Each structure stands twice: as C-alpha cells, then as structure tokens.
TrEMBL record:
Organism, as annotated: Coilia grayii (Gray's grenadier anchovy)
Xref: PANTHER family: PHD-TYPE DOMAIN-CONTAINING PROTEIN, RIBONUCLEASE H
Protein name: Integrase zinc-binding domain-containing protein
UniProt-listed Gene3D superfamilies: 1.10.340.70
Entry superkingdom: Eukaryota
Length: 194
C-alpha cells in the first residue's frame, strides 16, 4: 500500500535521505523502519515505556487507498458504529491515516448502519381536538369520557372479591372522578353514572 501511495518517499527514506519538501509526509517527521520495511511517523514518544510500539511508531497510510476504506469499515463494525471521534481514536492507536478524521467522517456518511444510528425520530403531528373538548362555556362534566380499569382483588371479610375502577374525565376541564364497580354488569355501571 505504501509502495503504491508513497513510492518516492519510501525510496528516499530507505536510502537514508530526507523526504522532499513537497511531500505530504513532511510534517510527520517520517522514519523508515528497516524491520517492517515501512514508513512510520517520528515524534517525541520514542523513550516512552508505557505505550505500545504501534502507538509510538505508527505506520503511515493513505486514506484514498481501498484497503484503508476496508480497515475503517471493519473497525466501525467491531465497535458497533460509534461516533467519528471514537472511531478515529481507535484507529489512531494502530496506524496513522493522513486526514484520518475526514476519511472516517466520509465513511460514516456513506455507511447505512451509521446513518441508522444517527437518524432522528420523526415527531408525529397530533390530530385536531374533538369538538367536545372545545366547549369552553359549559359546566364541568357536560361532555365526559369514561374508562374502566381492573380487576383488583379486595378482601371482604373472609373472602376475596374482584373490584373494578371506573374513570370519568371532563373533556373540557380535564377534571377526573374515580368510582368503584362491584361487577361489570349494567346495574353496577348505572349507579356510578348517576
């Protein structure tokens, strides 16, 4: 990959010559690693014993190469499609991609899974209020909504019985009245309604 993208720089550094001033690698203080036969970045971390060797002498890679796109895709998939900074930081631990942030953002912009994670939910538009809710000059409970809930087990003496709740809501003022039903037949519904 480096032979394809940095052929002149690789030749200069392997011959122990500095890279030309027109090179894209000039700001990285590039060094040639004879063991790996690759271009690595230089820097001031050479004497650090706490960092891994990959982090100290990261291999320089070109973002336009197809293999880099596959590396970014694989790292994004392994990390479950995180944000661009998290993915860029994780890649930076292994290698130095020129214009890496741009390459990561470009990949995440075209990745369908990343688009799905970044998508914002669509806020549904609420329907118009029914006419019963708009009668403002009427008394409370002029127009009422009714709902039933339960059953609940209630202890009466020595036995357990079922009870239901009935909820009346004024559609204009939203006042609420709750009552108890002893059963779900017609007579027990008419008593709280009266």
């Amino acid at each position: 990959m480096q032979a394809d993208c940095f052929a002149k720089d690789l030749k200069h550094l392997s011959d122990s010559k500095p890279v030309p001033y027109t090179s894209r690698l000039i700001t990285l203080a590039p060094e040639y690693d004879p063991k790996l036969q690759l271009i690595c970045i230089g820097g001031r971390l050479q004497s650090s014993h706490l960092l891994e060797s990959e982090a100290i002498n990261s291999v320089v890679l070109d973002p336009a190469h197809q293999v880099i796109k596959l590396i970014i895709r694989m790292a994004g998939h392994d990390l479950s499609h995180p944000g661009s900074e998290c993915l860029f930081t994780e890649l930076r631990r292994r290698c130095w991609i020129l214009r890496g942030r741009e390459a990561v953002k470009r990949h995440q912009h075209s990745c369908p899974d990343c688009q799905r994670w970044r998508a914002k939910p669509i806020v549904s538009q609420m329907a118009d209020l029914p006419p019963a809710c708009l009668w403002l000059m009427k008394p409370p409970f002029f127009c009422t909504g009714i709902d039933c809930f339960g059953p609940f087990t209630v202890r009466v003496g020595w036995r357990n019985e079922k009870r239901w709740g009935i909820l009346f809501e004024c559609l204009t003022t939203h006042a609420v009245h709750i009552d108890v039903l002893s059963s779900l037949n017609q007579d027990s519904l008419l008593m709280p309604l009266q």
